[in-house]
Amino acid sequence: MTTERDSRHVNDETTHSPRERFYRRERQSVPAARDFTRAALSDWGVPPGAYDDILLCAGELTTNALLHGVPPGRGLRLRLIPCGDVLRVEVHDSGGGEPRVTAPAGESGRGLFLVAELADKWGVAHRDPGKVVWCEFGLTRWSHGSGAQQNAPAGGQGTGDPESRT
User: Fold this and answer.
1) Is 153 exposed, middle or buried, given 0-12, 13-18 or 19+ CB atoms closer than 10 A?
2) Which among 7, 34, 101, 142 could bridge 47 via Cys, Cβ 3.0 to 4.6 Å?
3) 155 and 122 Cβ atoms separated by less than 8 Å
């Protein structure tokens, strides 16, 4: 079961408000989070060339939260925050720990490695309880030409307030 809070303003064509949804600790939450993200991207008119990277990162952050950050009986919150030409993806969970990029080994361990490679920025902000793992995408890199990623900077890690744009 999921719950959604969609804070779009009525008759506001120029401003896209954040969207968020709560997911329970269950396998179906990952594809549901990707579907939710895809719908928001479409509604906001995000260039289709950006979808793959954003959906992959939203899915990886959700998967990591479910595997490592969400205690039994709890859930996670996915927030999508558009701000001009930047889209921020946040996953809030109530678990401890400090997510770190590690070298992929076998079939697992690739989540944050992929996020670090595909997103323009990513980081972790602590909250009580838990943390927010976030990543940001500058959408202008997909707005020209065929939709292929152009001049994408290497992913960077930062830490800080999940409400700030760093």
Assistant:
1) exposed
2) 142
3) yes
Distance CA 146, CA 48 (A): 10
Which residue bears the tokens 């060339």?
Answer: 49
**What is the amino acid identity at position 49?**
G
pLDDT value for 15: 63
User: Residue 132: beta bridge partners?
Assistant: 92, 125
∠ CA 5-11-12 to the nearest 5 degrees? 75
- Phi first, then psi, for residue 41 (nearest 5°) are -60, -45
pLDDT at 103 over 90: no
How do 19-24 and 86-93 pair as beta strands? unpaired
> Quick one: average pLDDT of 107-132?
92
